[in-house]
Amino acid sequence: MPILINNRNARNLWLTRQGLSAPPTGPLDVLAIIRQLGFVQLDTIQIIARAQHHIIWSRNQHYREPMLNALLAQERGIFEHFTHDASVIPMEFYPMWRRQFRRMQDYLDSAKWNKNMPGPTVRDEIKTRIRLEGPLSTQAFDTKSTGPKKMWTRPPHKLALDYMWYAGELATSHRAGFTKHYDLAERIFPAELSNISHSDADQVNWLCQAALDRLGVATANELKNFWDAVSLKEARDWVDQTGLVPVQVEAADGGYSTAFAPADISDQLANIKPATSRLRILNPFDPAIRDRTRLKRLFGFDYRVEMFVPAAKRKWGYYVYPILQGDRFIGRIEAKSERANNVLNVLNVWAEAGVRWTPDRLTKLTAELARLARFVGVTDICWQCSMPAPD
Fold it and tell me: Which of 117, 231, 270, 286 is the most buried (most CB within 10 A)?
């Protein structure tokens, strides 16, 4: 019979794997946080803080923004590449990421929209400049796009730089602000890692196992989607061959769904500690909420980003942050920092159905807002909406 996992245990297992179960305090190890998560998504949008910084800060509030670029550019503890989106990945994972470079290159070579991609000659010229001049950003080139201008139109040099970055010929050296600088891969990836060669089968095995380690329990599709670096068939074959045990996971609505888990899942659940009662304001791109289907199933929290929804059709707002307290999503908040004006503006706040704004909960919300303000370097918090009244 499949092992039954009740909803409370499923939520606490997930939050533990996501680094959101314990208080976000104690000694800071940025690389250890990224390693635990597997990767951290990069995003350009800065409403309070950019996603990559907010995600790490949510797990340890001693983190500050310059630390990530130092880990990338100086310590070479991480590298940038594409999972389901542009992300930072622990450098130690590089040998198991080699097939992903090939997969991305094969995809780009076969894509119909790729007809404007500059050929090998132009790409070699760009690499020669980088070899002679050092890391360069797109601003070092001045080729222009031709034809109709569309949303995702890129000039030839940008297409070439991205192609070589996806293929693993170039790598991110550092960022100035959020501007990426490209360097030759052999000057970024350590030789001791570049010289390691694993078969595709070994890499698939590692990718699926590493995904399961971070998911706790998963379906084959969830394993596939974690890195977006294996196919669904590869994930299904891995599940069939690995000796996982079937489990029935209780959803927030009381229903059950089938997933797979390691053979020691019962021991893992026995050792799971309840999530801290700490209140956290999470980033919309936090990995704990990226899988919206899983989020709704486990927590009953129906969350969507509405950045690309016309303003008149938004239910909540342009950039709305989930509020997590303990093992429950209790609401959402719309806030925006104005660093130049030294203020964090609170625009709207909503409680989930059945959630009361108790005095204790309001105290924890205002404390988290104060911590967020300190994180982004502002001192004033301005409520541009009514502060919730305590029940």
Answer: 286
Tell me how far CA of residue 324 lies from CA of 252, 269, 284, 312, 320, in angstroms. Answer: 15, 21, 12, 27, 13
Contacts of residue 359, Cβ cutoff 8 Å, sequence gap at least 6:
390
CB burial of residue 105 (10 Å; 0-12, 13-18, 19+): middle
Asked if residue 288 lies in contact with residue 37, where contact means CB atoms within 8 angstroms, the answer is no
Closest CA to 220 of 208, 206, 229: 208
Q: Are 205 and 194 in contact (CB under 8 A)?
A: no
How many Cβ atoms from other residues are within 10 Å of residue 121's Cβ?
7
Using CA atoms, how far apart are residues 31 and 92, in angstroms rounded to an integer?
Answer: 10
One-letter amino acid identity for 25? T
Task: Tell me how far apart the alpha carbons of residues 109 and 123 are, in angstroms, rounded to a whole number.
Answer: 14
As a whole number of angstroms, the distance between CA 368 and CA 340 comes to 21
Q: Which amino acid is present at 365?
A: L
What would the two tokens of residue 6 be? 């009740």
Rounded CA gap, 363 and 179, in Å?
38
| Distance (Å, whole) CA 108 – CA 62 | 40
Provide the residue count of the chain.
391
Three-state DSSP at 188 gives: helix
Residues 13 and 217: beta-carbon distance below 8 Å = yes
Write down the residue that tokens 């800065």 correspond to.
Answer: 46
- Residue 294 tokens, joined: 């899983």
- Are 50 and 41 in contact, with CB atoms under 8 Å apart? no
pLDDT score, position 193: 97
| Percent above pLDDT 70 for the chain | 96
Pair 56, 75: CB distance under 8 Å:
no
Contact residues for 102 (Cβ-Cβ < 8 A; gap 6+): 167, 168
Number of H helices, E strands in the chain: 15, 13
Please enumerate in sequence order all residues whose Cβ is within 8 A of that of 170, keeping only pairs 6 or more positions apart, or say none. Answer: 127, 130, 161, 164, 182, 183, 184, 185
Q: Which amino acid, one-letter code, is at 201?
A: A
- Nearest Cα neighbor of 164 from 56, 72, 82, 254 is 82
The region of weakest confidence among 145-159, 204-218, 225-239, 276-290 is 145-159
pLDDT band at 151 (very low <50, low <70, confident <90, very high): very low
